[in-house]
Amino acid sequence: MANSPERLEAMFPKLTRAQVDRLRPFGRERRFGDGELIYERGSTKRAFYVLLTGRVEIDTAARAGDENVTMHEPGEFTGEVDMISGRQSLVSARARGSTALLEIDPADLRRIIQTDADLGEIFLRAFALRHAYLIDNTLGGVVLIGSSHSADTLRLRAFLERNGYPHVYLDVERDRDADALLESFHLGPAEVPVLMCKDRDRAMRNPSNAVVADALGLNTAVDAGHVHDLIVVGAGPSGLAAAVYGASEGLDVLALETSAPGGQAGSSSRIENYLGFPMGISGQDLAGRAFLQAEKFGANLAVARVAVGLACAERQLRVMCADGGTVQGRAVVVATGAAYRKLAVPELGRFEGNGVYYGATRVEAQLCDGEEIAVVGGGNSAGQAAVFLSGIAKQVHLLVRGAGLVDSMSRYLIQRIEKSPAITLRPYTQIEALEGDGRLQRVWWRRANTDRERHDIRHVFSMTGADANTGWLDGCVVLDAQRFVKTGVDLAPEDLETARWPLQRRPYQFETSLPRVFAVGDVRSGSMKRVASAVGEGSAAVQLVHKVLAE
Ligand SMILES: Cc1cc2nc3c(=O)[nH]c(=O)nc-3n(C[C@H](O)[C@H](O)[C@H](O)COP(=O)(O)OP(=O)(O)OC[C@H]3O[C@@H](n4cnc5c(N)ncnc54)[C@H](O)[C@@H]3O)c2cc1C
């Protein structure tokens, strides 16, 4: 992918002598001989280096000279986003010629980024651009071999994409290289999806997200005995905001996330009403930035880590995870949001991820190129999906249960839908059946009081109302009739009595019926179900976390 000179300059900036001098008190000088390895792909929590003399070659493999990424000159520095996240390095670095480097520990680098605004901006921008460059050019990542007919392939593609991990995707039905690669591991096309590490010494057959996270070092180790100041459950906009504000205000924060940062917003192709982004921003970009920001301040985010329970009868708050582990905190912010309601049609499960999708990102969109597709729902998320997909699909049928869109969708989206020849609005219409052999091939729908219609549609985007992700909280906090978490003034005296609220004071705003446990964003009863309000609630709740920790 071509880079403009300005972008290249921001990606590989040269520090001035004065800037290097500001860094010297934090580091020590080290010398490396020609060809000597400075750090290796796969290493974690490695040091940060500024070049004083000589050159440093960055490549993506253990062997020198493989997939050269760049050659650093004096005044330049090493590293990308992994410098902040502590994740495994995607590249190796080797000295070229006799080389002198200023070596700085990662903890000191974080301190510099937080306290020196000038250097912090240069480093963070370079790290983010370098990471995007590795993703765009699929450098240093993994190879995923799969099939567009497999739900697990889609799951793994979405997991890698949304966690910002570089990967090459090979489809067994389209890419000739796929068979040969599979054969080298004695595997056949029927065994996909298969994930291969780039150095191709390891292949994993249909791994779970948790196994992938472990294999790729996406998480730093969590110490079960350690008591964090704050555990945030869910890393959508509200959870990420709580993590950023908590960590920036000195709290020791651990965030747990089932899949990848971003939540529902991460599945949005373009958010146009979030303050400060007049051109709109994709949910994934917003989540990527928030994730970097949270890690810059020292929050620890564990992905593919599902909370399955909260131990509420004990003094110490403990969150139980699906892998059998437990984490402990002095306060908990519940930010588990909501998930789209499922279509009421028989055999839905056979087609989920295999023709029926709950998000419309680049990954799903690629499957719809030139096809006729259906989007179900009359809210903003359905509208956004229809507009986004109409640029890729041949025809988008927008199916709504009611008369139209006016009551449920923002005006700007309605106007775009009305103007688009590629979108057909179908009011009073509901899907009644899905059919297909192995994958979705046909959809039957009915417009009120008319005959059932058959359409050869292979992709349906289901974006109807959402249900709260509160199953893991059962019996611990008071929920409303729709199973959203009640907080603050919404907790009636009888709720508090049932919950045996033990304190003299009433629950603070966002505090649940269990002291020191807060709920923010879409999971909270009465919330606005918007990115901005979720972010606002996540950040505001941190103020109250300070208050309860001081009690
Ligand atoms: C396609 C789409 C488009 C949208 N567009 C807009 C828009 O343009 N503007 C706007 O303002 N709003 C938009 N919204 C709504 C907005 O995205 C939500 O209001 C917002 O994401 C809510 O944030 P949240 O953090 O509260 O919850 P969520 O975004 O739902 O995040 C919750 C997170 O918690 C995780 N989680 C759930 N259960 C567990 C568990 N047990 N353990 C660990 N983690 C868990 C989930 O994986 C998820 O990442 C859109 C929503 C969608 C789906």
In the CATH hierarchy, what is the class of the largest domain?
Answer: Alpha Beta
CATH superfamily of the largest domain: FAD/NAD(P)-binding domain
Helix content: 25-40%
Number of helices: 16
Overall structural class, as computed from helix and strand content, comes to alpha/beta
Q: Sheet with the most strands?
A: 7 strands, mixed
As a percent range, the share of strand residues is 15-25%
Assign the CATH architecture of the largest domain.
3-Layer(bba) Sandwich
Number of strands: 26
Task: Tell me the overall shape.
Answer: globular
Alpha carbon gyration radius: 25 Å
Low-confidence stretches: none
Heterogens: flavin-adenine dinucleotide
Number of domains: 4
Question: Would you write up a description of this structure?
Answer:
This protein has 551 residues and is an alpha/beta fold. It folds into four domains: 5-136, Jelly Rolls; 143-215, Glutaredoxin; 227-337 and 469-550, FAD/NAD(P)-binding domain (3-Layer(bba) Sandwich), CATH 3.50.50; 341-465, FAD/NAD(P)-binding domain. Helix content is 28%, strand content 24%. The protein contains 16 helices and 26 strands. Strands 10, 11, 12, 13, 14, 15 and 26 form a seven-stranded mixed beta sheet that branches. Helix 9 packs across helix 16 and helix 13 runs parallel beside helix 14. The longest helix is centred in the N-terminal third of the chain and has 20 residues, at 117-136. Flavin-adenine dinucleotide (FAD) is lined by residues 233-239, 256-259, 263-265, 267-268, 271-273, 306-307, 335-338, 380-381, 384-385, 469, 472, 521-523, 529-532, 534.
